[in-house]
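Q: How would the structure tokens look for this protein?
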Amino acid sequence: MIANAAFLAAMVLLLLAFVVMGDVSFLAPYKHLILGPYLWPILSFATLVFLNLFALFYLTGRALFLKDTGRKLAHIEKQLHTGDTIVRDLSERLAEEE
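A: Here is the predicted structure in token form.
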């Protein structure tokens, strides 16, 4: 889930960078004047945007894909520990491991 959130955040940031670069192409002759003093603020801003996008995608993924996971896992564990269950193989393996 972390890798997916990081990938999505990087893709959105890359898309934003391409859009901004296309819109400010008229500033290309002045790039040495802009990047010299403002390189660190630009990189800091890009890092903050990446972290915010990462947090947004991570929390969205947790909310959508991990809904009621604890309840579902508790139900499966209860079903595995009962004597008469559909998944008898898994119950036997679980008993052998304990």
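Residues 5 and 55 are 8 Å apart (CA to CA).

The mean pLDDT is 86.

Upvote if useful.
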